[in-house]
Amino acid sequence: MNTTTVNAEKISGFKLPQLSELLTGALVSSAIRLVALPLAGILAFLLLWSITAQNIDTSLGKFPGPAAVMEQFNALYDEHQRSREKEQAFYERQEKRNAERVAKDPSYEPRIRAYTGKETFLDQIITSLVTVMSGFLLAVAIAIPLGIAIGLSKPLNNAINPIIQVFKPVSPLAWLPLVTMVVSALYATPDPVVAKSFLVSLITVTLCCLWPMVINTAVGVAGIDKDLVNVSKVLRLPALRHVQKIVLPASVPMIFTGMRLSLGVAWMVLIAAEMLAQNPGLGKFVWDEFQNGSSNSLARIMAAVLVIGVIGFLLDRGMLTLQKLVSWDKSANQ
């Protein structure tokens, strides 16, 4: 009885926080976690980078700090704008010349030649993105069905697993010469649909990002809850219906885990492949600037490095967002 009295007194003397105070506290906590701490980390990184850069002398001058890199970002954008103006003027000249020739000779068939100016930094970014997504989607089309088949069939798993384990750790540097030679031998056409360099990069990316998806899909399919499998057996679902209604929904989280890993691998492999094979893209841009050796080269390379990192991060976030939309498992947040 006494205990009840004491607790009641304590409770009556305790001031419950207002709902608005709780919400304000939660908002402040979220703002610190989502904005203030990352911003503090970025500022600390920029400060450390700036101080370190001032103390590094290279054969091309001082290592570029944040200000020099930002200056090159502006210069690269200006170069892109000038290139677009040249391109527009090039096509306008052709149209004017064709119009004059048609006026003199109505039977003349006008022709428009493609602009062959040097690709700008933004053009290289777009080329790399198109290549990596093409190679990645091709790998998805191969890896997910193969992973499902391996996960459903133990004999098939035993047959293919050694091949996967052998080829999985092979570096793209080893694949690239082989792919280049094979594409050159088989894709010898005077009127190619796509550039040979694009095909080499695409196949190299596909070969290197195939394995994480195959392995994760197979593991996800093999680990499906036995109860779900039994339900499918009781309902006597056909094989394709079983895959559609049981296998795919149950293994979606593991499939997306493999896809996220593969996309990260694809992006890294592509940059290396473009550097080595001199195929158009960000990797070629980095290598060209390294070979150029001008006073701005290091800052331009650093700008490209930052862009490569940001794009890689955005690709991963995009895949994570897609996973949250499609998958029933909403726990993936990193």
Distance between the termini: 52 Å
Number of strands: 2
Indicate the structural class.
Answer: mainly alpha
Q: Rough shape?
A: globular
Compute the CA-based radius of gyration.
29 Å
Biggest sheet, open or closed, and with what strands and sense? 2 strands, antiparallel
| Major sheet: arrangement of strands | 1-2
- The residue-averaged pLDDT reads 86
Q: Provide the succession of SSEs.
A: HHEEHHHHHHHHH
Tally of helical segments = 11
Proportion of β residues? under 5%
Protein model, in words:
With 334 residues, this protein is mainly alpha-helical. The protein contains 11 helices and 2 strands; from the N terminus they run ααββααααααααα. The protein has helices at 2-13, 19-54, 66-104, 121-152, 154-167, 172-186, 196-222, 226-235, 239-277, 282-292, 297-326; strands at residues 57-58, 61-62. α6 (172-186) packs across α7. The two termini are 52 Å apart. Residues 1-6 have low confidence and may be disordered.
Write the layout of secondary structure elements.
Layout: H1 2-13, H2 19-54, E1 57-58, E2 61-62, H3 66-104, H4 121-152, H5 154-167, H6 172-186, H7 196-222, H8 226-235, H9 239-277, H10 282-292, H11 297-326
Antiparallel strand pairs: 1-2
What's the quick description here?
This protein has 334 residues and is mainly α. The chain contains eleven helices and two strands; from the N terminus they run H-H-E-E-H-H-H-H-H-H-H-H-H.
